[in-house]
Sequence to fold (475 residues):
Amino acid sequence: MKIDFSALGLVSVVSMMATVFVVGVAAIGIRAFDAAAEHAKLGRPAGVQRALAWSCITIAGLAVLYGIYLIVPAFH
Amino acid sequence: MNTTLFIVIVVVVTALMFDFTNGFHDSANAMATSVATGALKPRTAVLLAAVLNVGGAFLSTEVAKTISGGLVNESLVTPSMVFGGLVGAILWNLVTWLYGLPSSSSHALFGGLIGAVLVGAGTAGVNFSVVVSKILLPALVAPLVAGIAAGLATALAYRITGNQNKRTRRNFKYGQAVTGSLVALAHGTSDGQKTMGVITLVLITANYQGAGSAPQAWVILTAGLAIGLGTYSGGWRIMRTLGKGLADIEPAQGFAANASSTATILASSHLGFGLSTTHVCSGSVLGSGVGRIGGTVRWGTAGRMGLAWLLTLPAAAVVGGLAAWVAIAGPVGVGVVLALLTVGSGAIWLVSRKTVVDRHNVNEMPEVEVLGEYRTKKQRKQALRDKQQRALTEHGGPE
Fold:
């Protein structure tokens, strides 16, 4: 019986890191959106928060695009 | 009509039936958490999942070259054995659906085939070491990996966002819908082509098409439609268990669970250690339940699901073996099995009508009852109206 433990380990590590990274970045973005909205409501400048939020969502969006790239065989 | 043609037609029809059950069994994987948190309306969710599944099935150019991935010696497999295996898989999928239990459609198919091949060709036809390395071990690993990933991500998401208001919840719901869609698309590319592979291999063994040739257009079209229709029909019983039964899911947890499912499915299919979509998604949901402080996890339901996973292979194998034993006798045997399959499926469907779970009541409670009080459609609607009325009075009337 042959069990590919290195492939198993790699799958485990990659899955966990990718999940934590994407969810973490998206959560920062969502928090920043919230902060931006709170600042705007109080009449304070919210540019920094908004920029941070959009950067985070862009990174998460790129991860999604990479996912689609991996799913569709015609792309690679 | 000669005998071979008859058996081939029967196998194609049962393969499409299996594809349909595969669709409604697995639409919950992609959409259960989104339906549970209200990120997507139930009907939108299954429509989206169906479109993405069919799209995925058409997108994937590489059709499965083997039915079983080396589990059984395919040079010994005859169309009657494939038929027996499909019958075992369909019936097991229907029984688990009746009880609302997420279980792997691929394992059911493998189990059915193993039983059929054991009966038809003896122990030499089955590679038992592959059963351990490709079935048993991944079934343990998948929920663990996906669960830990989802748990860590959930804890992180709550740590970052803290107490969540309406706005953050809404944004997490957007993320949930996107990652759920990725699961549906990935599912279409892998499972959509499985049935195409089965049909194509049967056509090849019966000499209706050349060895090693690509699936015909009608095969791609009908298989894609069968899985799409199955997905659209919803599998609401399983959707309820996965979205409401295993854990109480908030939008941030649903997002973490779907992200973990997507990442684990993609990593496993590209780094060479295949994991079942159902096992991954169930593990993600459980993990996201554990990851939130104060979150609820119903371990009893999880235990029943685990039992169903253990039983999937042997149960489908027993039914598959019996079906193959009768079907190998000839066209009359095939006809008898087909009749029994129809009666069995019809009976399961009739029992399911006693306690209907549909898009209206999928989120009502965490349990799927099997033998409850019979209610007509009118009574169910009335119960729903009563419930809404109660909810309104409890919250101090309409705003």
